[in-house]
């Protein structure tokens, strides 16, 4: 069993359902090994639920408070980074028996830390917020997840029949993979990021956690990229030895939503005038009645679909206990 350390930058990853996330995080880490050390750094008075510090303390976290004057957010952010990076680096030598590091952030400033951890043979798992995560950071991790993937399932939620069917294949169909590829490149271009084949693969997985890097009928990732270029789905250029992906000429750099999200938005929109926040299971029921099959889009659970919609900035979600709600952005 691995000895695990958790380092949480709560300024960067601050779930609205923080207490549920903490419960999900601890359950996830229990499957990995034994927690030897855990720390969270941030300003508890800055947009953070007042219940969070107590819940963290109850779960054995060391809490480091970094208050800063209003308007000095970047200075505070630098303080958080320095504290966490210093503590994690010291721990490599002070507690060498810790083999797995769970880093909760998506900030590219943590890349040097991940490089050091990798150099010392540590396993690195990054938990991030897909909306602001740095692909260049995640490329150094042995595994990475959007924090929403750790939120406990809602026992009150009525699962779709598709969720009870056979498990979804780990490999996406080539057609669906091309759609996510195009969406990922478009999103990165819009956000002024550099879409390399590796970073785009990371973004694809963040947008759809069912994607594990496998595409039906494709053995090598570069073969998939080459075929996408050949079919004018994306472009590929060389910039001083670095391969850069892009959108074909004349195609706007905007997200090209898969059909399932357009259908989801239509369903939520139907209730928007009646109620601001709509229950997940109500949305799910309407979609089932309309014959919308989420399995066809590689979703085995309705909640995963909703979390992926939130990652794209299409909806907002909140919870009351285990009851989940959504509204249009």
Automatic annotation (TrEMBL):
Q: Which InterPro entries match?
A: NYN (IPR021139)
Upper taxonomic lineage: Bacteria, Candidatus Moduliflexota, Candidatus Moduliflexia, Candidatus Moduliflexales, Candidatus Moduliflexaceae
Q: Cite a single Pfam family from the UniProt record.
A: NYN
Stored PANTHER family: HTH OST-TYPE DOMAIN-CONTAINING PROTEIN, SLR1870 PROTEIN
Give a GO molecular function annotation for the protein. Answer: RNA nuclease activity
Gene3D superfamilies listed in its UniProt record = 5'-nuclease (3.40.50.1010)
Q: Which residues form the NYN domain?
A: 3-144
Stated name of the protein: NYN domain-containing protein
């Amino acid at each position: 069993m691995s000895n695990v350390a958790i380092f949480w930058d709560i300024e960067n990853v601050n779930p609205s359902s923080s207490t549920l996330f903490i419960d999900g995080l601890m359950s996830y880490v229990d499957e990995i090994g034994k927690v030897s050390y855990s720390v969270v750094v941030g300003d508890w008075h800055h947009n953070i639920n007042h219940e969070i510090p107590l819940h963290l303390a109850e779960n054995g976290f060391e809490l480091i408070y970094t208050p800063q004057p209003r308007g000095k957010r970047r200075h505070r952010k630098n303080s958080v980074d320095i504290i966490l990076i210093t503590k994690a680096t010291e721990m490599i030598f002070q507690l060498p028996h810790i083999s797995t590091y769970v880093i909760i952030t998506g900030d590219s400033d943590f890349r040097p830390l991940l490089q050091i951890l990798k150099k010392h043979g540590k396993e690195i798992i990054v938990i991030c917020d897909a909306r602001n995560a740095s692909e260049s950071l995640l490329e150094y991790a042995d595994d990475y997840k959007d924090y929403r993937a750790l939120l406990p399932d809602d026992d009150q939620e009525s699962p779709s029949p598709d969720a009870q069917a056979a498990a979804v294949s780990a490999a996406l169909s080539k057609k669906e993979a091309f759609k996510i590829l195009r969406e990922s490149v478009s999103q990165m271009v819009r956000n002024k990021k550099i879409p390399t084949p590796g970073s785009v693969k990371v973004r694809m997985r963040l947008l759809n956690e069912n994607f594990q890097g496998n595409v039906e009928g494709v053995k090598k990732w570069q073969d998939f990229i080459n075929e996408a270029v050949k079919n004018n789905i994306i472009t590929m250029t060389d910039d001083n030895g670095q391969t850069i992906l892009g959108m074909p000429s004349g195609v706007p750099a905007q997200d090209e939503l898969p059909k399932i999200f357009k259908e989801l938005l239509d369903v939520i929109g139907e209730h928007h005038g009646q109620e601001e926040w709509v229950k997940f299971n109500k949305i799910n029921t309407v979609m089932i009645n309309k014959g919308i099959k989420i399995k066809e889009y590689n979703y085995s659970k309705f909640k995963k679909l909703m979390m992926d919609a939130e990652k794209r900035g299409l909806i907002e979600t909140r919870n009351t206990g285990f009851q989940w709600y959504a509204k249009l952005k």
